[in-house]
Design goal:
4 strands; 50% helix; alpha+beta; 216 residues; 8 helices; 4-stranded mixed beta sheet
Length: 216
């Protein structure tokens, strides 16, 4: 997989995930939104409120001095506390449809927003006990975004993806250190870099520790 930037890729990932996720959200019950996720302290509703607020912040170019910080995220969620679940989902749908153009124009600095929102969609599916939480039609797009996003954040890793028979190079070479090697599926690789639970997964990792790969 090449890691050259494709400005249209973040928007494609968001729209692809919108078409997969929104039907699930529209059919969910109130109790489903109250379930806890892999994100400490956040329910499904909190995750969705965070995603919708971030994406629409990007669309509207509202960037304060602490934007994307934990404090900013908590404020965004608190501001939506009185919204109905449907309003939270409406805002998310709007952001997933419109943020791609703004991300493309940003030159790469916001590409990680699209990747992060896709991972959060996986967090929702994981909380609901659905199979393939971090898979689906957006996985290939997410992996293509992961390589350039993690280039300066993690040691060099050569990943052999068994489910697609592709090889992906991620991270930066470090003097005196051989590249790490990964063999497994693409969804588990996403879990490693996103710092998500690895219970029940199977993979081989050599020359690098799991803790060195988390980039969020």
């Amino acid at each position: 997989m090449a890691d050259e930037r494709d400005p249209g890729l973040p928007g494609l990932l968001l729209r692809t995930e919108r078409d997969e996720l929104l039907p699930l959200l529209r059919s969910a019950g109130r109790s489903d939104f109250a379930l806890r996720t892999a994100c400490p302290g956040w329910t499904v509703r909190d995750v969705l409120a965070h995603c919708g607020s971030v994406l629409n912040r990007v669309v509207e170019s509202r960037f304060g001095p602490d934007v994307f910080s934990p404090e900013c995220n908590d404020r965004d969620i608190a501001e939506r506390a009185d919204w109905t679940d449907a309003q939270v989902v409406d805002e998310l749908e709007r952001g997933m449809a419109e943020a791609g153009a703004a991300i493309a124009k940003a030159g790469g600095v916001l590409d990680g927003v699209a990747l992060g929102e896709w991972i959060h969609a996986g967090d929702v599916r994981e909380a609901w006990g659905l199979e393939g939480a971090y898979q689906g039609p957006g996985l290939t797009h997410a992996l293509r975004l992961l390589a350039p996003f993690a280039r300066r954040k993690a040691p060099l890793l050569v990943a052999r993806l068994e489910d697609s028979d592709e090889e992906l190079t991620i991270g930066t070479e470090r003097e005196g250190r051989a590249p790490g090697r990964y063999r497994g599926d693409g969804a588990t690789l996403i879990r490693l870099y996103a710092g998500r639970p690895l219970v029940g997964t199977r993979y081989e990792l050599e020359g690098v520790k799991e803790s060195e790969l988390s980039v969020f």
